[in-house]
Amino acid sequence: MKALKPRICVPICARRAVEIPAAMERARRAADMIELRLDCLTADERNIARDQMPEWLHQFGAPVVLTLRAPEQGGRSEVDDEARARFWMSLHKTPSDCFIDLELNLAQRFATQDLSHELPFEWNRVICSHHDFAGVPADLEQIYKRMVATPAGILKIAVQATDATDCLAVFRLLERAQRDGRQMIAIAMGPGGVATRILGSSRGSFLTYASLDESSTTAPGQLDATDLRELYRIDQINPETQIFGLIGRPVSHSLSPHIHNRAFAAVGLDAVYLTLEVLGAGQFFRRMVRIETRELDWNLRGLSVTSPHKSAVIDSLDWVEPAAKEIGAVNTIVVKQNELHGYNTDAPGFISPLGEKFGSLRDARCAVIGAGGGARAVLWALRKAGARSELFVRNVAAGEPVADEFGTGCYPLAEADFAGFDIVINATPLGTKGAHDDETPAVAAQLRNVRLAYDLVYNPLETRFLREARAAGCETVGGLEMLVAQAVEQFKLWTGQDAPVETMWAGAMKALEKNSSTRNVSDLNSQEP
Q1: pLDDT value at residue 525
Q2: What is the pLDDT of residues 138-149, one digit of tens each?
Q3: Residues 6 or more apart from 254 whose CB is under 8 A from it?
C-alpha cells in the first residue's frame, strides 16, 4: 500500500465573507490546505465571497477546497440542488491549486449534461463526494462505482462510525482506490472513526481534515490540526509504524494519547497511540486484533483497555498474568509474536502514590467507594499490601459479590461515617468533569479524622471530593498520579524501555490545561453497579 505525504486540510466555516481572509491566514499556520465551507454563509454573503474569491485564492498561495454542502450531506444552510448548480456555474475561473467539492448527484448531473466546456473548473480538480451521517451504508461498493464513473479527479466518501470496526470499510475503500489508480479521500466520522483520520494518509488517503481547535470542528470526530502534526506525528506515520491504542467507550477525551505519544517521541520510537471506540470487545478482537482472523494489515503492538471492557477482553487473550486473573480485569495488552498477553497496571499504578505517602500499608484501614473494574484493582492492591479494606456502595446487593470475592465487608454509602479510616478511596466517576461535575461520594462531615483521601478521577485536578476532604483536614491524592503511574508500567511492557516519566507528566498536564473547558472521562472510569 502506497503511503502519501500527509495533507492536513482545515475547514473554515465563517458566517460573513469579510471574516474569511483572516480565517484563511489563521489556518495557514497549521494546514497544508484549507476548505472554505461556503454553505456556512447566507446566499448574499456567498455571492460576496464568490466575487472576492479570485483575490483570496491568489493571496493565499496554497491549495484551497471550495465546498457548498447540501443540507442532507451535512450542509449548514438550506440550499437546494438548483441553487448549488447555479452557484458553481457562476464561479470565476479557478486556479490550478483550487479544488471543487461536488456531491455525487451534482457531479453526475454536470457530467451527463456535458457542461465540461462551460464549467469554471477542470474535472481533474473536482472532489466527487458522498457523506452518510447515519452509518456505513450497505451499498458502499455501489456508491464507489457510481463515483468512479464520473470524470472527477478525486473521490471522497465519509461515513459515520459507531465502532472502531466501521473503519475497516473505509480502509478497504482506500485499498480499492489504489488498485484502481484513483485518488481517494476516505474518512469515518465520529469517535469510532479516529483511526481513519490519523492513519488514512499512510494508507493512501489524498488528505485528512482537521480543525484549528475544538470549537471550530465541521464534522464529528475531527481532531485538532496541531495535535495531528505534533502529538500524533502524522508526517512520520508509515506502514511500519507501531500502533498502540485505547479501547473502551467512551474514549474520545482520554489523556492517554497525550501521555503515550509524547513518550514515544521522547525516546525516538516510530509509534503512534490512538483512541478506538469499541462497542463489543469480542468483535473488535476478531476483526481487528487477532492475527489469524483480523481484516486489517496493520502493525498493532499493544492496547490499553478501559471501561466497559476490562473483564470482557480476558476471553480474547492467549495468556493473562496471575495478578490480572485474580483482579478479574485487564487494562494492558501486549502483542507478542502471534499471541495476546494481558496485564493489569491499574493496581501498581494505584499503589505507587500511597507508597510515597505511607511507606507500608500493612494494617492500614481503607474504605473503597465503588465496585467497578477500578475498585477491583484497588481492593486487590490493598489486600496484597496487607491493608484492611471495606467496600461502600450505593447498591449493597450489587456490591456484595465483589466484597465477598475480596474478603471485605460491604456497606451502604449513604450511611457511611469514615472517621477512623486511614484512607478513603473514591473509585467511582463522581466528580468527573462533564459527566458528574460537582458531585461527590462523601462530604467533609463524613471524612473527619480520615488521614488521606484518594480520588481516582483525574479531571478536574481539584474535584469536589478532594475539596471536601481538605475541609475535613485530610491529606489528598488526585487521580492523575495513578493515571501516569499505570501508563509508565504500560510503556515498559510495550517497549521494554524505562518510561520518560517527566515527559508523560508534562503531556498529561498540558492536555488538561488545553481541555480545561471540555469533558474528559477518566481512563479508569470505574462505575458502581
Answers
A1: 37
A2: 999 999 999 999
A3: 246, 275, 306, 520, 521, 523
CA 495/CA 497 separation, integer angstroms? 5
The grid cell for 28 is 495557514
The rounded distance, in Å, linking the Cα atoms of 177 and 183 is: 7
Query: 484-512: per-residue pLDDT in tens?
Result: 999 999 999 999 999 999 999 999 999 98
Asked whether residue 523 carries a pLDDT value surpassing 80, the answer given is no
Select which of 156, 310, 384, 514 is catalytic: 310
Phi-psi region of 232 (alpha: psi -120 to 50; beta: other; left: phi over 0): alpha
User: What pLDDT digit, counting tens, does each position of 396-424 carry?
Assistant: 999 999 999 999 999 999 989 999 999 99
As given in the structure block, the three cell numbers for residue 11 are: 475547514
The grid coordinates listed for 198 are 490519523
Instruction: Give the pTM.
Output: 0.90
CA distance 331 to 344: 5
Torsion of CA 178, 128, 189, 171, to 10 degrees: -10
Q: Residue 469 is which amino acid?
A: A
**CA 466/CA 454 separation, integer angstroms:** 8
**Partners of residue 187 on adjacent β-strands:** 158
Q: Are 494 and 463 in contact (CB under 8 A)?
A: no
**Helix 396-406 with 373-384: angle, nearest 10 deg:** 30
Long-range pairs of 404-409 with CB within 8 A, sequence gap ≥ 24: 405/328, 406/376, 406/379, 406/380, 407/383, 408/368, 408/379
Count of other CB atoms within 10 angstroms of residue 142: 10
- The three-state secondary structure class of 77 is coil
Strand (E) positions, 238-348? 242-248, 271-277, 300-305, 319-320, 332-336, 339-343
**325 among known catalytic residues:** no
Burial of 305 (0-12, 13-18, 19+ CB in 10 A): buried
Rounded distance, CA 365 to CA 275, Å? 37
For the packed helices 167-180 and 140-148, what is the interaxial angle rounded to 10 degrees?
30
Instruction: Decide: 161 and 192 in contact? Cβ < 8 Å.
Output: yes
DSSP for 343-388, please give it. E--HHHHHHHHHHHHHS--TT-EEEEE--SHHHHHHHHHHHHTT-E
What is the CB-side half-sphere exposure of residue 215 using CA atoms within 13 A?
Answer: 4
- Per the structure block, which three cell numbers stand in for 247? 479501547
